[in-house]
Amino acid sequence: MRKIGISKIFIGLIFISVLFAEPYQSDEFMLGGWAIRTAMGGNTTVIDGNGLTANSNPALLSEISGMRIAVSGGNFWTGLVNLAQVGAVKSNDKWSYGFSANILGGDGIKITELVEPGEPMSVQNYPRVVDEQGHYTASVNLATSRNWQKFSAGISGKIVRKKIPDHSGWGFSASGGALWKLMNNLKIGIYARDISTYQLFWNDNVHETGMPSVSLGLAYRFDLSSNWTITFAPESTYGIDEGFGLLRAGTALKYADILTFALGTQDGSFSTGAELNIKSFQIGVSAGYNSSLGESYNFSVGYEMF
To answer: Both ends of the chain: CA-CA distance in Å?
Structure first.
């Protein structure tokens, strides 16, 4: 009965969001955080992010045992933006709770004005660079999930602060997701992002609204031996505004919960990385390349408290 109730809530929120939707900009927090997940193409539907899982499908919180804390940092697209994240997850047999805080920023926004500001633009009165300023987007995310053995479902919410030259704004949204464990080695997930719509209010009275998107993913683990396993995890996203897009796929080769190597792609970009478990610590690095935007680098550190 609870599963049906949660499904009705999700459907209702999506219906309401469509009625009030308006144009909106893209969500920067699609960038990676947990390094090994980023290396697998950035799958956030069926691959958890350790202590940073609150920033993904909230049903994945049930995949975390005990309590985890994590931090990550990255430089994306040849230095265009930097991203830092910190988070924590605490789970028991039935309920899991997560928190994360993220900040993305960069420099290089050029401020221009005409040589003669009061005159019409011409060959002699051309725009010139007079300043260079930065921008940032910060987010606080809270999430919870409920586990029913082979099935888990969760909801999450985030508050966003944006700053660009001359303007700033606040925003918020809610998301939901579910995870089915069909077999010990097969999981299927669905992630409904921004089901409440993404509401963004700028200080110049401009109000933007983002449409929801839905991601569907699966993860299949194949046991090569008693110590070696390999996992395949594709994911596809559909957005009401954008249609189908953001096809992600990744594979991870793991040795005895000690060492993991990963390869992945996101719409043609290439990513790779590795993770090393040392006692209660998980240390990961990833690197990626996009033919249009250049290279990206990311690291993460997690700690299992109990």
So the answer is: 33
Per-residue pLDDT at 22 exceeds 50: no
| pLDDT, tens digit, 9 for 90 and up, residues 196-249 | 888 889 998 888 888 888 999 999 999 999 999 999 999 998 887 777 776 889
CA distance 158 to 105: 18
- Is residue 194 within 8 A of residue 176, CB to CB? The reply is no
Instruction: Identify the CATH number of the domain in which residue 220 sits.
Output: 2.40.160.40
Residue closest to 63 by CA, chosen among 81, 76, 50: 50
| CA dist list (Å): 112 to 43, 119, 204, 251, 252 | 39, 15, 20, 46, 47
Asked, for residue 50, whether it belongs to a domain, the answer is yes
Judge whether 70 and 102 are in contact, CB under 8 Å.
Answer: no
Q: Are 37 and 60 in contact (CB under 8 A)?
A: no
Q: Is residue 118 part of a domain?
A: no
CB 249 within 8 Å of CB 271: no
Q: Note whether residue 216 is domain-resident.
A: yes
The domain tally of the chain equals 1
β strands within 115-166, DSSP E: 127-148, 151-164
26 to 205, 238, 298: CA distances (angstroms): 19, 14, 21
**What is the per-residue pLDDT across 33-44, written as a single tens digit (0 to 9) for each?**
899 999 999 889
Is residue 77 predicted with pLDDT exceeding 50? yes
Range of the domain at 52: 2-106+131-304
